[in-house]
Amino acid sequence: MKANKVLLIYNPMAGNGLIKNHLDEIIDKFQKKRLQIIPFRTDKKETLNEYFSLMDVEKYRKIIVAGGDGTINITVNAMIRNGIDLPLALFQVGTANDFAGYFELPSDIKGMIKVALEENYTMVDIGKVNNKYFINVAAMGFLVDVSQKTDPNVKNTLGVVSYYLRGIGELPNLKPIPIKIVSNEYSAEENIYFMLVMNGRSAGGFKKIAPEAMVNDGMLDVVLFREMPIMELMPLLLNVLAGNHAENKFVEYFKTSKISIKSDQIVGTDIDGEKGEEFPLEIEVIPNKLKINIAKVENEGSVL
After folding, report:
1. What are 142-173's pLDDT values in tens digits?
2. Is the model's pTM score more than 0.90?
3. Looking at the chain, which runs of residues are DSSP E strands?
4. Which domains occur in the chain, in start order?
């Protein structure tokens, strides 16, 4: 008998409660396809890990993750720890939804259900930082502190705008961070304000932060923002919005499969919106690790 259970992991706070309000509709649509939705409300990472450790994987067809990048991150880390390799369907109801946005998935509830009921998939890479995994981005530096200081309720209400508002208020405290980078493609000692190691293309709602990134190329895209005069920040921001910041003299952009990052200072880190690992960092790509449910397209591979 083919597995007929679908685990729905949802963040009750994401999207101002969108999934909670449509839970009955989701269950109804899947039941009509002879599929049983098993709702799982995310509260603590330990609870999800415990569920996966006891889960009879053979009875499940796929996992739906309804939330932002942080919810997907928690799910993927728990899956890997417990040796679960079921396909993932993504309901993008978080603040920025950078990873789900890469696949050009629908954002309305009916569209999301339609894709999750189909069996169209693609394999994607993930990143690993020390002992944790990330699906979209590992970040370090100034903007990480901004994100972690932003009230979750404000994030849900204002979305990406909340980060910008907080960031402007923190500019007077901006200080460079000395780091040492080692990779086959680029090695240096730099003073930076911020650094991103990307699997996807967008971060924090910036759609073109890593415009050349592909989630299935076996590489990570590194974007490094060097120390610069404050007056250069606004022109650089405009470069980032246009996706041509790689040409800016205060930016280093390169691809790599593995990178080491060290610093003598305490540096804030972030993994997909969740608190990251402490320095030093060993970051690498793990090719073709996840199977993602995508919308059916006429030209296969056009999303990637």
Report:
1. 766 555 454 555 444 434 444 444 444 555 56
2. no
3. 5-10, 36-41, 60-67, 88-92, 121-129, 132-134, 137-141, 177-182, 188-198, 220-226, 251-256, 258-262, 269-271, 274-275, 281-293
4. 5-119 (3.40.50.10330), 132-286 (2.60.200.40)
